[in-house]
Amino acid sequence: MRTDRVENVVCVPGDATTGIEFARVEVVNYLGRQKVFDIIKAYGVDYDRLWIHDSIRHEMNRFCSARTSRAVYLDEFALIGDKLRATLQKKCDGYANGVVIVDVRVAMPAVVPDRITKIFEAEEAEEAAKRRIEEEHIEAVAIAERKARERAMRVETSRERAKVESDAAAYRKRTMADSEYYVKVREAEANRVLLTESYLRLQEARIWQNTAKAYFGEKIPNAGSLPTVER
């Protein structure tokens, strides 16, 4: 088991003209025993120069050129090591050289170029603006929904008030009708009590008394009959 350290690895992202420098890329690997003699015979003891060092620089350039500066620095930086390990292993397996890639560790760039910094700042400002717009939109929607609920509550309250008033008016009307009916019933009952035989005779006497006249002289006018009271 050995660790190869590839230093000062430079790659250029697809949206940049200047490169990004990675101070160090470490490749943990070993050479299978059955391949030791053949690989050293073919490439010498510095076989890792070809299969690891040169391959790391080449594959880093391929990785960066297919991505933006933001992807290399931030979005996909954590994936670089795994992608390089898989790519190197596939290449070694293709040539059956017996090299086994165990792990690849990539150091974060120590210095970020000003141009890349400005790109990040612009992207962050754009993201902040998008967040503000989204927050304002969410707030506007919330306000509109609250106002809609308040309007609905006012309408519902108005409807309930109108219903209460209508019910009260109907109740008053029914109460007045019932009262009038009660009065008429009581009057009818009172009349039935008053219209007895003796009451009718008394009324007849009172009418006769009120209409009786006295005449003086030799002749008495034709006498009229007393008014009759219907029974």
Describe the structure.
The protein has 231 residues and is an alpha+beta fold. Helices cover 63% and strands 13% of the residues. It is built from 6 helices and 3 strands, in the order ββααααβαα. The protein has helices spanning 36-43, 47-65, 69-75, 80-95, 114-194, 197-211; strands spanning 2-11, 20-31, 99-106. A 3-stranded antiparallel β-sheet has the order 1-2-3, with helices on one face. A hairpin with an 8-residue loop joins strand 1 (2-11) and strand 2 (20-31). Helix 2 crosses helix 4. 12% of the residues are buried.
Summed up:
The chain is an alpha+beta fold and about 230 residues long. Helices cover about 65% and strands about 15% of the residues. Strand 1 and strand 2 form a beta hairpin.
Helical fraction equals: 55-70%
Poorly predicted segments: none
Total number of strands: 3
**Gap from first CA to last CA:** 138 Å
Instruction: Work out the helix count.
Output: 6
| Global geometry | rod-shaped
- Whole-number mean pLDDT: 80
What Rg, in angstroms, do the CA atoms define?
57 Å
Report the sheet-strand fraction: 5-15%
